[in-house]
Amino acid sequence: MIVSLAIAGGGIVSAQVTPNPAPLNNITSLPAATTGDPNPANPSLLTAVAQPNNLADFVQNQTALLKLGKSLFWDMQLGSDGIQSCATCHFHAGADNRSKNQISPGLLALSKDITFQVGGGANYQLTAADFPFHKLADPNDRTSTVISDPNDVASSQGVFNSVLNNTVSGQAEDSTTSEPDPDGFQVNGINVRRVEPRNTPTVINAIFNKLQFWDGRAKETFNGVSIKGAADFNAKVYKATKANQLTAVSVSLNNSSLASLVTGPLLSPFETSAGGRTLPEVGAKFLRKKGQKLKSLRPLGKQLVDRQDSVLGSNSRYRKPGLDIASYDQLIRQAFKKEWWKSKSIIQVDSNGTPTVLAKNDDNNESEEGLTLPTNQFSLRDWNFSLFSGLAMQKYLSTLVSDQTPFDKFQAGNTNALTDQQKSGLTVFVNNPANGGGNCNACHSIPEFTTASVRRTAGVASTDSTDPLISNPTNGFFPNYGVRPASDDPGAGNTTRSLFKAPALRNIGLTAPYMHNGGKATLEQVVDFYNRGRGDDGGPGVAPLNLTDAKKADLVAFLRNGLTDQRVLLEKAPFDHPQLFIPNGHPGNQSSVTASGNTNGTPTATDQLVEIPAVGHNGVTTPKPNFLE
Fold first, then answer.
1. With pLDDT > 70 as the criterion, what percentage of the chain qualifies?
2. Sign of CA dihedral 425, 431, 432, 434
3. Radius of gyration for the chain, computed over Cα atoms and rounded to the nearest angstrom
4. 379 contacts 348 by C-beta, under 8 angstroms
5. Does the CA dihedral 433-435-436-442 come out positive or negative?
6. Of 572, 403, 427, which Cα lies nearest the Cα of 43?
7. Residue 365: its pLDDT value, please?
8. Is the dihedral angle over the CA atoms 110, 111, 116, 118 positive or is it negative?
9. How large is the average pLDDT for residues 241-246?
């Protein structure tokens, strides 16, 4: 690969860096234009990940699939509390800029730690003074006196700790019972919202990742049910082989780690779900109608959708919430082939979780809309909700491609797209230390800015936690890179060897805090970490880069501004979105909160919700503040 570099006299030269592997036959070029953008950049350096090669076996209408995926991703009705959506943790440049009640204690440590070392308790308001978590007397010298070293994580708040009684057809809130939080998310005996134990990565450009999550546990093969891919031998969906006959089948869709990812948060007792919820129960909540009034959950029924939304605008009911599509069932019927949703048979689950197919009983008032089914019985549409939501949200997330940064325009031939300082920063990014650089490109390889991409791992299969993709650092998962000891969080590694995926870097100026523990609030702190030779984990570290202050500033300028796509910054299509209300901690602080009045179990704190207004394809004129701004 050739990368253009700035030289002292202001000219542009070319430098040879590690060549990219040859493209696969199933990789095609991204279109230059992105939906809704009237001024597309020159053709992108990025190459699109092909759709699953058997997608047509499931999907019949890609437009409906995209509408279904965007609606589900942003819909607050998805959470057990009727508030928490997938987008709740991914609303700001695909990530999360909240700073109150965003601390999780050392829950993934080998010796689990539920004490809050940053702020002294849950519901704490973070400040700039809290960062970096690993503080040194001299940030340029990893051997200098350690001032602080908490094992806490800055991440994203999700749901309150609760267990599911049942989902309720046509009702946004599940029936749940609140229980005392075992992980310390309480203030004076009142539960507060739980916080994920790893920092939230952006979903923008996630389509280029071979595997998803920091530890790669969401596999590239989608089995229709779980994150585990081909390693989950029990994963089955049902297919209507005849009108009254359902058959349990295994499915396998390649290039679908995002679809695998979707199945995890929907059941996570930290992110969106009460404990014990199943994906068919989520399907029953959305796809059945409630009582004889035939009330169903309208897509985005609690949120406004801008008339100019690039995907959903034609179905907006603005100024009424939701879409003019009355139910998700309609979108599923349009998007998917009928053998995956149309059947008169039902699936009954026994107390051990074992499903059995029952013939339709004409005397139980059951129809294809799922009317009056008991809580342990499911229609075909209910059962296959994991398949529908996984493929639909993957379709939506695959459109969130950021490929119009100043760097992309510079690479396409516009030599003025980067400032002189940003060009100097690019030189530092690419060059090795012997040539005065930071060698950043070794792990965050251009153009994806990660070696963990589909293209760079071509031909490497991944099936389970010991697969060759994760075990080989050249495939984007790096051992002991020095942020925290393996005993705090081994990632995909073990008790002595931590292993985490190298994240992509486009729009990194918008997605603080940084690292898998969220322990660095600024890019300057990140650059200091690498410049001093890492070693925050107490290990030996590596040789310092010894970058000058000027070179560090240049590198930060390139990362912060040279890699920021203005469409992401200003929420222009495809990064526009429906309205959203996000929990932002609770009134009070780490010492005192007020109870919400919940009488079903352990008291829960009153929510403090913040509105994220609906945005159409033209975006906004004023960017939203970043983390701690």
1. 88
2. negative
3. 24
4. no
5. negative
6. 403
7. 41
8. negative
9. 84
Asked if residues 116 and 197 have their Cβ atoms less than 8 Å apart, the reply is no
* pLDDT of 462: 65
User: Residue 280: how many CB atoms within 10 A of its CB?
Assistant: 23
Q: Which residues contact 47 (CB under 8 A, 6 or more apart)?
A: 23, 27, 28, 29, 30, 455
CA-to-CA distance for 228 and 401, rounded, in angstroms?
A: 25
d(CA 419, CA 547): 20
Rounded Cα distance between 167 and 181, Å, is 21
What spatial distance separates the first Cα and last Cα of the chain, rounded to whole Å?
Answer: 37
Q: Which phi and psi (to 5°) does residue 134 adopt?
A: -90, 100
Q: Are strands 146-148 and 186-187 parallel, antiparallel or unpaired?
A: unpaired
Give the predicted TM-score (pTM) of the model.
0.91
Task: Kindly give, in sequence order, each residue whose CB lies less than 8 Å from that of residue 46, ignoring residues fewer than 6 positions away.
Answer: 30, 205, 208, 401, 403, 447, 448
Instruction: Give the number of other Cβ atoms within 10 Å of residue 9's Cβ.
Output: 5
What is the rounded CA–CA span in Å between residue 526 and residue 108?
23
Q: Considering all CA atoms of the chain, what is the largest pairwise distance in Å, rounded to the nearest integer?
A: 85
Give CA torsion, residues 327, 54, 266, 170, to 10 deg.
Answer: 20
Encoded tokens for 50 = 């092909």
pLDDT tens by residue, 535-545: 999 888 899 99
Residue with tokens 């080989």: 472
Two tokens, residue 233: 């031998």
412's tokens: 């396409």
